[in-house]
Structures are given as structure tokens and as C-alpha cells.
Amino acid sequence: MRKTLGGRQPSEGFLSHGAVRDGNALVSKDGVAAWWLLLEHLTEDDLEMLEALLVDEELARAERFHFERDRQIYIAAHGICRGLLSYHLGQPAKNWRFSIEDHGKPELISPAGGPRIRVNISHTRGLAAVALTSEHDIGVDVEWRHRDAMVDELAQRMFAESERRDVQRACKEKKLDIFLAYWTLKEAYVKAIGKGLSQPLDAFEFDLNGLNITFLDRSADDPDHWHFERYQPGPDHLMALAIRHPAKANLRVEAGPAPMEFLRNLAQA
Ligand SMILES: CC(C)(COP(=O)(O)OP(=O)(O)OC[C@H]1O[C@@H](n2cnc3c(N)ncnc32)[C@H](O)[C@@H]1OP(=O)(O)O)[C@@H](O)C(=O)NCCC(=O)NCCS
């Protein structure tokens, strides 16, 4: 498994093949690309540029947020989603269309004749992320590390037994991070399968050391077909990725900050 972690300059393009310009899909079924964007790194111009990538329906939705920070992170998430698609598929950002599945998961209406492109976004206070692959189920989740949550109670109510114990035993300083480590992985999985929170979170459990999943009903899903990644995009955020893949040893995951220069050029195109 080859992967590239973050840590590069936000303005730098980091995918090995560079941006696509002529409309050929370069996302293979073994390749996964993820971008994140920290709101604190954005100028007003950057936000306007990201806004210019959105379609009317998204702009109207952005206007309906009560809080400016929610509006901004929504714009950032949908802007980098369109940007990542254009980076890989070489079409204008506004071209992308989505259908909404049964439990609310948006699925890209993939370009005719090409592979099925799979994409998922997540946004939380101060951070947006997007993950993309071809054919296979993919989910991403990001969380803010300073959430004021009743984590023991939440874990008790929603997690599997080993996870509940782990959260309960954790010292005060580590408790929220351990809770969020499980939470992001669980959300990434339920988003990858498209069920969201209609999927009970206590029906499967994670081992944080090996990032392995176990299904309490063994016939429910195949743990060997799931690959998980965890990242810390900045001091205040945690992120997890879930990818279903029949031969996960072949997976190549490239994750890092969204390349602002590419996005700027895209917005001006
Ligand atoms: C919708 C849900 C799948 C994820 O919600 P979330 O963690 O609040 O939100 P995220 O930012 O990670 O993801 C939202 C995005 O996922 C996508 N999405 C929506 N429904 C989805 C589904 N069923 N499956 C996968 N993706 C979905 C959408 O693109 C959505 O963004 P948009 O509304 O701007 O288009 C669902 O699991 C949920 O409601 N979770 C509750 C969140 C919560 O209680 N958090 C407390 C943490 S302590």
C-alpha cells in the first residue's frame, strides 16, 4: 500500500500525475485521492473563488445558513469537491451533477462511457474534506477536536462494547480524542455504505491500533474488504477515510491539503 500524507504547502498540487486537462478520467479503481481545506488558511478572495465553482442550487443552499462560519465551510466543502473532480476528470467545475440516494448520500452522475466515479464530502467547524475514487464505496468524516460533547454518555448509547470501555477508561485529557477517533471511523464507514446514521453504530467495532473493523453479525459485511485511514489535518481536527476494496493491498491513497493554485485557475477558466 502506498500513501502520501499531508504536510505539503496548501498551494502545491500533490497528486503524482498532476491535473488532468483533456477530459480523460485518471482515477483508477485502486487510486484514492482526498483533499482537505482549513478555513483559517482562506482569504476572502479564496472564498469568493471557491464560491465561483458552485452551481446555483448550492449557492442558494449556502445562503440559507444562519451562521457565516457554516456558510463558509459549506462553500469550501462543495468547492473542493468540484475542484477534485475537475482535477481528475478535466471538465469545468460546474459540470458535475449529483443524484441523491435513499439515505441522502449524493452520488456523482458519472460521465457517460467512463468509470463510475465515487465521491464523498465532510465538513465541520473550520475544516472541509473530500475523498474520491472509482467504482468502490468511499466515505470521509472530519470532526473538530474541541466539541463540547457528553462523550461517555454518547459512547454508552451508540458504540459497541469494546469501544465504550475504551472511552470510559480513558483519562480526561484523552477521552474526547479517543471518542472522536472511533466516531470519525464509524461515520466514514456509514457514509461509505450510504446509510448514514440509519446504520446502528454498535453493530460493528474498530480496533484503533490496526484500524480493523469487526462486524458483530459476521454475515453483515466482510472486514477484509475494508480499508481505513486516519489523518490529523491540523491541530484542531481529526479525519477518517473508509474505502471498500476487494484487494486492498493494491490501494494507493493520496491525501493532503487542497491545491489552491489549481482551484484559482479552475475558477478563472
Ligand atoms: C449525514 C451523516 C451521514 C453525516 O453527517 P455529519 O457528520 O453531520 O456531516 P458530514 O459533514 O460528515 O457529512 C455531510 C455530507 O455527507 C453527505 N451525505 C449526506 N447523507 C449521506 C449519507 N447517507 N451517506 C454518505 N454521505 C452523506 C452530504 O454530501 C453531506 O454534505 P452536504 O449536506 O453539504 O451536501 C449522518 O451520519 C449524520 O447525520 N450524522 C450525525 C452527526 C452528529 O451527530 N455528529 C455529532 C458528532 S459528536
UniProtKB/TrEMBL annotation:
What does the record give as the organism's lineage? Bacteria, Pseudomonadati, Pseudomonadota, Alphaproteobacteria, Hyphomicrobiales
Tell whether Ribonucleoprotein is among the UniProt keywords.
no
Which gene is the coding source of this polypeptide chain?
Answer: sfp
What EC number(s) would the UniProt record show? 2.7.8.-
Q: Which GO terms describe its cellular component?
A: cytosol
Enzyme type, top EC level: transferase
Matching SUPFAM superfamilies: 4'-phosphopantetheinyl transferase (SSF56214)
What is the protein's given name?
4'-phosphopantetheinyl transferase sfp
**Family per record:** Belongs to the P-Pant transferase superfamily. Gsp/Sfp/HetI/AcpT family.
Domain 4'-phosphopantetheinyl transferase N-terminal: start-end pairs: 44-131
- Name the InterPro entries for this protein: 4-PPantetheinyl_Trfase_dom, 4-PPantetheinyl_Trfase_dom_sf, AASDHPPT_N, P-Pant_transferase_sf
Q: Which UniProt keywords apply?
A: Transferase
Q: Would you kindly state one Gene Ontology biological process term found in this protein's UniProt entry? A: lysine biosynthetic process via aminoadipic acid
Q: Name one GO molecular function term.
A: magnesium ion binding
Which residues does the UniProt record annotate as the domain 4'-phosphopantetheinyl transferase? 138-241
